[in-house]
Design a protein that fits this description.
This protein is mainly alpha-helical. It is built from 45 helices and 14 strands. 61% of the residues lie in helices and 6% in strands. Strands 8-9-10-7-11 form a five-stranded parallel beta sheet, with helices on both faces.
Length: 984
């Protein structure tokens, strides 16, 4: 590897009897270790001698060379004696034979493999270069990252002498070269937003290094920040002219022109994203093909021919259409398996759930596909358009088959199509995709009688069918020649050795039983479901009916046990038996789901067969109780001492319990979609509305995590509408309270304040004090944001009084911390610090770490304004650690923003820019535009502090636009920042 510093070739340690091998470090302070034991390397000059020997590639260094390395042109009179003394002392510390005397000089020999950190870094850098040359960016990035991690501060820190200084310069230059290479690969893999923060800090530390500026421009442009990218060029040009009297190099000028022209070649990585090298990512997601696949010969040949043509076409797309149960998925999976050899780079599969009420969102599917193709989570963008573009880039140059099962319509699948030569897509759907341009359409009908009989025979066995051929034909005819129906009937017969085929045919002959639910296009499917349902044992049939009532996409064993009011073990046995009958699917270990049509059929069965009818409502009520009791337990674990759990509606069914906070949080986020579905489903009935609202309230962490914020908001809106339609003031007040937090988190402060005012009045009328406490507290902090400090202080004082009346100490602490911020905004810094400390004291006494993080956040703000910057930084880092651990993205981002403010106050603009950039990244999609404007303002100040005034101006211009759109008074303050820049 050209330009890479070289060190001695190393051999393995010689004796297995040696207790521990020696190792050395030069990429930081000079260190020597024996195993885990730190060895003394002596005085700075003695360390300089050791470093010089370690870096001489195993060659002998003469005494004169060592004297020159340690002291240069002015050595002391006893320099030779000093060198000998240092060598003698080092011999006593190191293993025998390591430091040897030779030809009047010294050398280090016999080091074990990996004994010197620089040698390891060289090997990994060379490995990364080879991987990158082979197009394996994932592995190259990983190995290069490990090499860079070996640096531990300044190279040869504290080591004197001209040789050490020269090595410091050389190794630092090499480190920066490796870092530039890794950042370049970051951008090639789409990690643009994440790279901006690091590049901002690096350009501040190395302002004249044009390659870093070039990478920063590209990262900003690909993050949608074109104006900032151009501003970086302007800043660089001015700096180079002022400092060196030169213009930017041609590459930088060319990049500026391409950005000005919006060159499409800049929008995506210049090279395809490579698969991880250690184990190349070749997804093999196809479901297992059935061993008894029968018939469909013409279709198999037709589809196979289309897929075989993929290599020479832009994209081969085949769309299979037909009614449910006709065997679309089975045929598609079978054909896909036969074609695997034509797609050596992998096969992707997804069930798009197109026939259900909640079909899969394309952006969610793209996220899953990108991860399966080796893309890191941090590199996956937020928007559908960006994910689709990255998906096509990742697939470029690969030969991948994509099976899109159960699609809703063409609009759902268009973003999921590869669009590149060599790739192909198979699509199954209930509708013919006539509006899917260029697709090869296949209409799949029922089986022929011969194919149907052949499938039945394969499953049941030739011996049983041969003697009852007519009865077998009657069975497959009763199944409507549908593959799914035939498979279920044959499987049941195969599992019952005492039955004959005639017995099964007789059971199917009763059309009133079989076609009871018949409707136009779904005739055969419903007949199939009726067949399977009719053969269930009573307990199985009850479970099948009741579990289908829940709206969530799937269900855990514990939730199912609640609906059935049965022990968990018995419930799991029932669920597994339903899986065996093909009436239920195992979505994942411990989770189960219905096929969408089966769910509809199960509900119809519940309406027809469940007796008494009240049991249907009772099952859903138990599910609601289960979720509410469990969510309340999660809330209590996360917030010890918080009184919300004491003011929730009582439940008649218990929830789960957890040993620790992390397990509780895992449950909440894993069940988020099902929990919100349960809340929405329960909103329309007066007897469950209050519990549904309380469940949403107890799960309000979902509104602040970013992952489920939109779903949470939609659910809260549905609850509010139901509360108003049913005319229940107490319910409306609580529903409004959940919405207040939603609007607050989203930065819609005016709307939040209006909802909070209405909630307060309704809660007071209903004599429900807890919502009054919460909404008063919320109105206080909202008033702070709107610079209505007197109003804010009044609301918070009342909130504190109400929380104390309820004995809600954590609530009191929250209001105290918010009041601290009001005091801070009105110049009462000392009392602001005292109030925040009082809040921390309450939280800590109750072991409430998550809410305690909010208090430390408030104290960090107060300490910043009081000038105690080190303490402020410490408190904010404490808060940041807890927010990250608790998955609170909003507060993680806000803590980074506040740390940037502290860094500015401490005159650390480079670090401020880094933290502000990270805040922007974390707050994507959460927190609202007002908070984004605040972060941009601080980022602009930080960039100005490191000389990047052009970028600063762009940030401030964007912030002004945000504030003006919102009508926020901050607009005038930021305009004032722009004035000097414009004047200059």
């Amino acid at each position: 590897m050209d330009g890479v510093p070289r060190v001695p070739e190393q051999r393995r340690a010689g004796s297995a009897a040696e207790p521990a091998a020696l190792s050395f470090g030069v990429l930081g302070p000079v260190r020597a270790r024996r195993g885990e034991e730190q060895l003394s390397t002596g005085s700075p000059q003695q360390r300089a001698l050791l470093a010089a020997l370690l870096l001489r590639e195993g060659r002998t260094a003469t005494a004169a060379e060592l004297i020159d390395a340690l002291w240069g042109e002015e050595p002391p009179s006893q320099a030779l004696a000093a060198v000998r003394t240092y060598a003698s002392r080092l011999r006593k510390v190191l293993d025998p034979g390591v430091l040897v005397s030779e030809s009047g000089g010294y050398a280090v020999r016999g080091l074990g493999e990996g004994a010197l950190d620089l040698a390891v870094a060289q090997e990994w850098a060379a490995e990364a270069e080879k991987a990158r040359a082979a197009g394996d960016l994932c592995h190259a990035r990983d190995v290069l990252g490990r090499a860079l991690a070996l640096w531990d501060g300044e190279v040869l820190a504290g080591v004197p002498g001209p040789y050490a200084e020269a090595q410091r310069v050389r190794l630092e230059e090499w480190r920066l070269t490796l870092l530039e290479s890794r950042l370049d690969m970051d951008l090639e893999q789409g990690c643009h937003a994440e790279a901006v923060s690091e590049l901002t800090a690096l350009t501040a530390a190395h302002p004249l290094r044009e390659r870093l500026r070039e990478l920063l421009m590209l990262a900003l442009y690909r993050s949608g920040r074109q104006a900032e990218a151009l501003a970086v060029y302007a800043d660089t040009r001015r700096l180079l002219a002022d400092e060196l009297g030169v213009d930017p190099r041609p590459g930088l000028r060319e990049l500026q022109q391409r950005i000005l022209q919006a060159d499409p070649g800049l929008a995506e990585p210049s090279a395809p994203v490579a698969e991880p090298a250690a184990a190349p990512v070749r997804p093999a997601q196809l479901p297992a093909t059935v061993p008894d696949f029968t018939g469909r010969t013409a279709f198999v040949a037709e589809l196979g021919e289309v897929l075989a043509s993929a290599e020479g076409r832009v994209m081969a797309v085949s769309a299979l259409a037909g009614i449910g149960g006709v065997g679309k998925t089975t045929l598609a999976v079978h054909v896909a398996h036969r074609a695997r050899s034509a797609f050596p780079d992998g096969q992707l599969y997804v069930d798009l759930q197109g026939a259900g009420a909640r079909s899969a969102e394309p952006e969610t599917v793209l996220g899953s596909f990108l991860r399966a193709l080796g893309t890191a989570d941090s590199a996956i963008p937020d928007s559908l358009e960006e994910r689709s573009a990255l998906y096509r880039s990742v697939l470029d140059g690969r030969r991948v088959l994509v099976l899109l099962d159960n699609a809703r319509d063409a609009a759902q699948i268009r973003p999921l199509l590869p669009g590149t030569e060599g790739c192909a897509a198979l699509v199954t759907s209930r509708v013919r995709m006539v509006d899917l341009a260029g697709a090869h359409l296949v209409d799949l009908d029922v089986m022929s009688p011969d194919e149907a009989l052949s499938l039945f025979t394969k499953i049941v066995g030739e011996e049983r069918v041969a003697s009852e051929r007519k009865a077998a034909l009657d069975v497959v005819a009763a199944c409507g020649f549908l593959p799914l129906a035939i498979r279920i009937a044959a499987s049941r017969l195969a599992a019952r050795r005492t039955w004959t085929v005639s017995v099964l045919a007789a059971k199917l002959a009763d059309e009133r039983r079989r076609l009871d639910e018949l409707q136009a296009g779904d005739l055969a499917v419903k007949a199939t479901f009726e067949l399977g349902y009719g053969q269930l044992e009573p307990a199985q049939a009850r479970a099948f009916r009741l579990l289908g009532l829940a709206d969530g996409p799937d269900m855990s064993v514990a939730a199912a046990a609640a609906m059935l009011d049965l022990p968990t073990e018995e419930t799991e046995d029932l669920l597994e038996s339903l899986v065996d009958t093909s009436l239920l699917e195992s979505a994942a270990p411990g989770r189960y789901r219905y096929h969408d049509l089966v769910r509809l059929y199960a509900r119809a069965c519940a309406e027809r067969d469940e007796w008494p009818p009240s049991e249907r409502d009772a099952a859903l009520s138990r599910l609601l109780d289960f979720y509410l009791a469990t969510a309340a337990g999660v809330y209590a674990i996360e917030r010890p001492g918080d009184r919300l759990v004491d003011h929730l509606e009582p439940t008649g069914y218990p929830g789960l319990t957890f040993d620790d906070r992390h397990a509780a949080q895992d449950w909440l986020y894993a069940e988020a979609i099902c929990l919100l579905a349960c809340v929405t489903q329960s909103a329309g009935r007066p007897e469950t509305l209050a519990r549904a609202i309380d469940l949403l309230w107890a799960a309000h962490d979902l509104s602040e995590s970013g992952a489920n914020s939109k779903g949470y908001e939609a659910t809260a809106e549905a609850l509010l509408e139901s509360s108003r339609l049913l005319g229940i003031p107490r319910a409306e007040a609580r529903a409004l309270t959940t919405l207040v937090n939603v609007h607050h988190v989203s930065g819609r402060f005016e709307q939040a304040d209006q909802e909070a005012e209405r909630a307060t009045l309704l809660a007071q009328e209903a004599d429900d004090l807890l919502p009054v406490c919460w909404t008063r507290n919320a109105r206080g902090i909202i008033a702070l944001y709107q610079n209505r400090h007197e109003d804010g202080e009044e609301h918070l004082s009342q909130a504190i009084e109400h929380f104390r009346t309820l004995g809600d100490r954590p609530g009191e602490a929250s209001a105290l911390c918010n009041l601290s911020r009001i005091h801070l905004a009105t110049g009462r810094t000392n009392s602001a610090v005292a109030l925040a400390q009082e809040g921390i004291g309450i939280y800590d006494a109750m072991g409430n770490s998550m809410r305690g993080a909010n208090a430390r956040y408030a104290l960090g703000l107060a300490l910043t304004q009081s000038g105690e910057l080190d303490s402020a930084t410490a408190r904010l880092h404490e808060a940041l650690d807890v927010f990250r651990d608790s998955r609170q993205r909003l507060w993680e981002g806000m803590s980074l923003f506040r740390l940037a403010e502290v860094d500015l106050a401490a005159r650390r603009p480079a670090r401020a820019a880094t933290n502000a950039e990270m805040a922007l990244t974390v707050l994507r999609g959460i927190g609202g535009e007002w908070r984004r404007g605040n972060v941009l303002t601080v980022l602009g100040r930080a960039l100005g502090g490191i000389g990047q005034t052009g970028r600063a101006q762009v940030c401030w211009q964007e912030a002004v636009a945000i504030y003006e759109e919102l009508g926020s008074p901050e607009a005038a303050e930021v305009r004032a920042l722009l004035t000097p820049v414009r004047a200059a």
